[in-house]
Design brief:
Layout: H1 2-5, E1 9-16, E2 24-25, E3 30-39, E4 43-44, E5 47-64, E6 69-88, E7 100-101, E8 110-111, E9 114-123, E10 133-135, E11 138-149, E12 156-164, E13 180-186, E14 194-201, E15 205-207, E16 211-220, E17 226-240, E18 243-259, E19 263-272, E20 287-298, E21 306-314, H2 326-338, H3 381-384, H4 430-436, E22 446-447
Parallel strand pairs: 2-12, 6-7, 15-21
Antiparallel strand pairs: 1-3, 3-9, 4-8, 5-6, 5-11, 10-11, 11-12, 13-14, 14-16, 16-19, 17-18, 17-20, 20-21, 21-22
């Protein structure tokens, strides 16, 4: 009886090889991995394939107190779907469901008992693809999915996500431009006099883990000591049709030394961006992620005068953004005050968000496939990994929001992927805030109360 209950498929999984220390992929990256199948008896398989796909989804629920109902909103975007077939029963009709089929090694559909490893390889598309993102109300994910199909059996599925970082900001010219702004506040209740602030950042685009350098000139002509404060906010906007969901998150807060009453002072501050903060996303139709640095004076019993700097957060391993030294950074902030005080926002420079589908003719040139031998057996586990165990096949670190190290930037691309063994046989949303900032006379936004 125990023998009858023994499952014929003992193990089924998929994993991939990281191509850099941050375990990230980008446009044009080659993604290689393997499907691991361990079976207890000989099996006939109708189909075994791997899909590589990128997609975005949003979903949230809102309560209507008047009608005592809950309304749900959702939306979906598909960026690409690639498919590599490893086993195909010739008598069964293949269904691709819109996937672009890529060439690769295939095997006969009778698989003998034991452990087997099926290598696969994809090249990620070029195009306007957003970076990975995952929060409560929406996500942008890139995923590998293996499926094992047998007659009169439930389809077995194995999945693993990988982190994608977009190259969309490579061609934006203003990432190194400083931003500046100024504001003055006249005191009323409980405080007399006035206070003014001029502030400038060293640039507009920053990598994860990088330091924002802000230089501020404060003239405190009021009757109180005032504190200069900084706050980096992340603004998330989720869209489903004409409906929007907004979420704000504080990334960090910093406080400088007090500015004494009837005094003038210049303050230079270094503000470190967390290495695991979500990236700026402006090229997705249903998810926007923006970052705003607020520089403001804390005025008791009144609204705080603040200057808003929309900045762009880039992947920590992107080498196209040069790092500035401190001397140059402070020189930039001083120079920008003597020139035009406002810099244009960058959202209009991004490619328009659109569903990207790869050109089918593109993919045959991406591979050098081995000759197909449908009569040959699939490689056994020991053929490909003579000394490894099933528990040590490949690396699967946490896929989203990687903690990124500082880049060495020796070259533009990624390191070469690890070599594989080959088988022997063959609203008024936050976006509106950015768009409103395109008016150079009002950017960055200031509040004067």
């Amino acid at each position: 009886m125990a023998g009858r209950l023994l499952k014929s498929v003992k193990h089924f999984s998929i994993n991939y090889d990281p191509i850099n220390e941050n375990n990230t992929f980008t446009n044009g990256s080659t993604l290689e991995g393997r499907v691991v199948l361990e079976i207890t008896k000989d099996l006939k398989i109708d189909q075994l394939y791997v899909k590589c796909k990128g997609q975005a989804d949003v979903h949230w629920t809102e309560s209507d107190s008047k009608n005592d109902t809950d309304d749900s909103y959702s939306a979906h975007e598909r960026y690409f779907k690639l498919k590599q077939i490893l086993i195909q029963n010739a008598s069964k009709k293949e269904k691709n469901n819109g996937a672009t089929v890529t060439p690769g090694e295939t095997y006969k559909n009778l698989v003998i008992a034991g452990s087997h490893v099926f290598p696969f390889r994809f090249q990620l598309p070029e195009g306007n693809l957003p970076s990975s993102f995952k929060e409560q109300h929406g996500s942008i994910i890139y995923i590998l999915e293996a499926r094992l199909c047998r007659a009169w059996r439930i389809t077995r599925t194995a999945t693993v996500e990988f982190t994608f970082v977009s190259k969309v900001y490579e061609d934006i010219p203003y990432l190194m431009k400083p931003l500046s702004g100024a504001i003055e506040k006249k005191m009323k209740l409980f405080t007399s006099g006035s206070a003014s602030v001029k502030a400038a950042t060293d640039k507009t685009g920053y990598m994860q883990g990088e330091i924002i350098i802000v230089e501020s000139e404060i003239e405190n002509s009021s009757s109180r000591d005032l504190k200069l404060k900084y706050k980096l906010e992340q603004k998330q906007t989720f869209t489903a049709g004409s409906h929007h969901k907004h979420e704000d998150k504080v990334i960090f807060k910093e406080v400088a030394d007090p500015i004494l009453s009837r005094s003038k002072r210049t303050v230079a501050s270094k503000l470190k961006i967390p290495p695991d903060v979500s990236l700026t996303i402006a090229n997705c139709d249903i998810i926007k992620v923006e970052h705003v640095l607020k520089v403001y004076l804390d005025v008791p019993f009144a609204r705080d005068p603040e200057i808003l700097f929309p900045i762009i957060i880039l992947p920590g391993d992107q080498c196209f953004l040069p790092q500035q030294n401190e001397a140059n950074s402070y020189a930039n902030t001083e120079a920008v005050w003597s020139s035009s005080p406002f810099q244009p926002a960058l959202t209009h420079l991004l490619p328009a968000a659109a569903t990207f589908r790869p050109i089918p003719e593109l993919y045959p040139s991406l591979y050098t496939p081995q000759p197909t031998n449908p009569e040959g057996p699939p490689p056994s586990y020991t053929d490909i990994f003579p000394t490894a165990s099933a528990a040590t096949l490949g690396l699967q670190p946490s896929p989203l929001t990687p903690v990124l190290s500082a880049p060495s930037c020796p070259a533009q691309g990624y390191p070469t992927a690890a070599q594989h063994h080959q088988p022997e046989s063959e609203c008024l949303s936050s976006l509106g805030y950015w768009q409103g900032a395109l008016n150079s006379e009002s950017y960055p936004t200031t509040t004067n109360k």
